[in-house]
Amino acid sequence: MGSRSGREGADQAVYNGTASPPPPAPLQAAIDCIANSDFAKTDDGKAILQKIRDALANNKIESQDLKPGLFGTYNDGTGVITYSSFYNNDPGVIASELVHEGAHILYNSRLPKPALDNLDEEVYTNLQQLAFYDGQTGDCKPKSILVSGELDRRKALRDAGGSQFRDDVKVRYPAYN
User: Fold this and answer.
1) Which of 157, 159, 148 is nearest to 71 (CA)?
2) What global pTM score does this model have?
3) Between 168 and 162, where is the model more confident?
4) Mind listing the pLDDT tens digit for each residue in 65-76?
5) What stretches of 110-159 show up as alpha helix (H) in DSSP?
6) How far is CA 36 from the centre of its chain?
7) How far apart are CA 56 and CA 49, in angstroms?
8) Domain-located, residue 5
9) Quick check: is 33 in a domain?
10) Quick check: is 130 in a domain?
11) Residue 126 has pLDDT above 90, yes or no
């Protein structure tokens, strides 16, 4: 099962009538990476960061074992962001996934009725993740070669005018290929 998360300070979440414990250190470090990034100064970056903070305050961010190659998920039904526990000690990967999954929340919040499995949504979330990744440096840079390699591949394709999607994402949209 996933780890419980909350926030310290004046806006600390309440869980079962008591104050929530602080989030695990790598999760807090990941949120700090986002908050201190140039991405968080953009309109979408600010809005995505707020969606992430709201999810955290509502105990809607967790770490779980996910299948290999899956870095994170967002469940529209429950509103839960899940990042792979394989990266629990890599705040850079967690930050990147929080931005991607937070972008799903923001995208759907702008629609009168959220669309399911929407290509435009995937384009938006991938572009937001890459915009954040463009500025990730130092301790905020993903340490995982698998993740940074995948993001570098998508970035190169984006910069060349091609698809920034993984092959498993492309399969969901046959008309796109």
Assistant:
1) 148
2) 0.80
3) 162
4) 999 888 899 998
5) 119-134, 145-159
6) 15
7) 10
8) no
9) yes
10) yes
11) no
Helix (H, G, I), strand (E, B) or coil at 175: helix
How many beta carbons lie within 10 A of that of residue 31, not counting itself? 22
Decide the pairing of beta strands 72-75 and 80-84: antiparallel
The amino acid sitting at 149 is G
| The dihedral formed by the CA atoms of 139, 93, 88 and 9, expressed in degrees to the nearest 10 | 70
Asked, for residue 109, whether it belongs to a domain, the answer is: yes
pLDDT digits (tens, 9 = 90+) for 5-27: 433 333 333 333 445 555 678 99
As given in the structure block, the two tokens for residue 87 are: 């990266």
The region, left, alpha or beta by phi > 0 then psi within -120 to 50, assigned to residue 59 is left
Number of domains in the chain: 1
**Domain span at residue 88?**
29-49+62-167
| Mean predicted confidence (pLDDT) in 87-102 | 94
